[in-house]
Every structure is written in structure tokens, then in C-alpha cells.
């Protein structure tokens, strides 16, 4: 049997042993926790590096020069503020002609076609008209009577001077001659009024002529067709000038004035042009509740075709803003306007919040500070390189 002293010693040994085991286990646990912390820090460091590399396009200075990428420093600038109005190109009504037959008749020939460019005085069609035959016959008859009346007058004058005939007969011959001359003038004026020559080889034919140089935009005439003075046969438009008409709401009428310089653009074409407001309507439309304004455009190349939808930009007061960039610098990435900031070793994509724009400069409200440098040209190259890099990283 064990004594009390031996029992106490054994109990103490057991307690010490348990404490030693507990300490070892705790140390092991702490060592494992330390490893997890290190791994976490390593993972966090790795994520930070990847975040920094996200959106980065690495290019050397030589590659930047070869790609013609210009780098510009952001700073304050002036935004030209415009007010835009929708509109449409229309014919210049002052240079639009509806050519109609001068006399009823039958179409003998048609020498002009739709879309054809014609010169002033060019024959469009030839019409055979009994009415014209009557007018020319009337002139010829009046000329014959005038010639006879003139001979009679000369004879009566000679006889009166010789005291052979009475003065009354001489005066009557003079009056008859005057009436005959008036009849000739009347018949000639009738022909002049319809724009046909008084002399022609065929009494019943006349030519329809182009009143000025232009393009045939409408044609309603066929060979053998019977036509009247009320039938519109041709429409000719001089497209060397056109009208740019646009609508103005009542609250915007103060911004559009005659003589104001405007810029005209169209989504259908890359070029733009400038002009001067030549007309602002004095009335508000009953249905549209807008007024019509007009710009007369010189159109030598015919690029501004009637029917083309346009945007008329009227310049307002300029605005000073703290940060502007060139409009060509912006690209859309993930449906967000993005700039490429110049950083060490290349460029980094930076989403921005843009403000006002005049087509050349764009205000940047967020994402770029004054003094920061950015790629201002050929940024589509950077966008393509970024897309290629992200695709390779995904694989």
C-alpha cells in the first residue's frame, strides 16, 4: 500500500504532465494560426498587385511614338456652349421652278428625264398646239393687213399732196394704218406672253425650255400625252443653294436671331458646315407650337441633299471649366467613358464622369485632376491593347 506521501507525489507528477501536454498543444495551435495569417497577408498582397495591374497597358516610349499616341496635360479650358435644334434640308423655294405647258396640246417629244441636270434654255419637250397655230396665224394676218394699210396710206398721202383726193380719205388711210400696226403688236405680245418665238418653221409647235440651270426633280409627261396649261410637267431645282430649316420652341426664340452664325451637322455624313440664320418665323404653328427658322446654305458639291435630317447648333456664351480633355481621348469601356492616364511604363484606364462638351473639348467632373497627363490621340490603340491583354489574362 502506498503511503499518503507517495500518493501526493504521484498526483503532482500527473498534474505537471498534463500541464506540459496542454502547453505543447497550445504552442502547436498558435504556430498553425501564425501560418494562416502569413498566407492571408500574402493573398492580400497578391490581390493588391493584381488590382494595380488591372487596366494597365504597358508600352515603352518607342512604342508610344510608333503608335502616334500623343500625351497631353489636363487643365482648365473653355467649353463653347451650343444649343441644338432638329431640322431638315429643303429646296431653296426661290430657286425652284414648276414648268407647265404654255398652251394646251399634245406631247410630240420629251428630251429630259428625271434626275437629269439641265442648263438654262435647254429644251425639255416639244408640244403641238392648235392654239399656238391660231396665235401665229393671227400675227401673220395682222402683219399682212398692216403692210396693205401702209401701202394704202402712202398712196393716199401722195394723192392728197397732189390735190387729187380729199383730205378725209388721207386721214382715214392713216387711221387704218395705225389700227393695223396695233393689231400686229397685240398678236406679237400674245406670243411673247407664252414665251414662244414669233417666227417658227412650224406654226403649231413650241418647245418647253428650262428657266435656269438645275436638276429635274419631278417629271409628269409622256410621249403622245394631251396636256393643258394647268398640268405640272417638270420641276427643276437649283441645288447650288439649299435651305436648312429647323424648328424653335417659344422659350428658345431669344437664342435664335437673324444674322446669327450656326453650325450644321448630320448623323448621315461626317462633314459639317456653317451658315447664317436668314429667317425666323414671326408666327407659332397651331399644331406644332413652334416657329420655323432658316439658314441659306451654299451647296456647290450638292452634298446637302433635300430631305436630309440635320442638327443646327447655335452658339451661346462660352463656359470656363477647371478640367477639360480632348474629345478624341475618350473611349467607352464597360459602358463608361474612359481615359488612359499616363503612368510609369505605359497607360492606365481610368473611368471618368464627363460634363459639357462642344465636340472638341469635354469637361471632366471626376476621375482626372488638373496637371495629370493622359493619352489624347489614337486611344483606340490603347483600348485594343487593353482588350487583348485582358483576354490573355483570362486564359
From TrEMBL:
One of its GO terms (cellular component) is outer membrane-bounded periplasmic space. Residues 32-51 are annotated as: Disordered. Residues 241-317 form the CusB-like beta-barrel domain. Residues 134-193 form the CzcB-like alpha-helical hairpin domain. InterPro entries: Beta-barrel_RND_2, BSH_CzcB-like, CzcB_C, HH_CzcB-like, MFP_Cation_Efflux, RND_pump_MFP. GO terms for biological process: copper ion export; plasma membrane copper ion transport. Residues 323-383 form the CzcB-like C-terminal circularly permuted SH3-like domain. The chain crosses the membrane at residues 7-25. Keywords: Membrane, Transmembrane, Transmembrane helix, Transport. Residues 95-238 form the CzcB-like barrel-sandwich hybrid domain. GO terms for molecular function: transition metal ion binding; transmembrane transporter activity. Coiled coil: none annotated. NCBIfam families: RND_mfp (TIGR01730). Belongs to the membrane fusion protein (MFP) (TC 8.A.1) family. This is Cobalt-zinc-cadmium resistance protein CzcB. It comes from Pigmentiphaga humi. The gene is czcB_2.
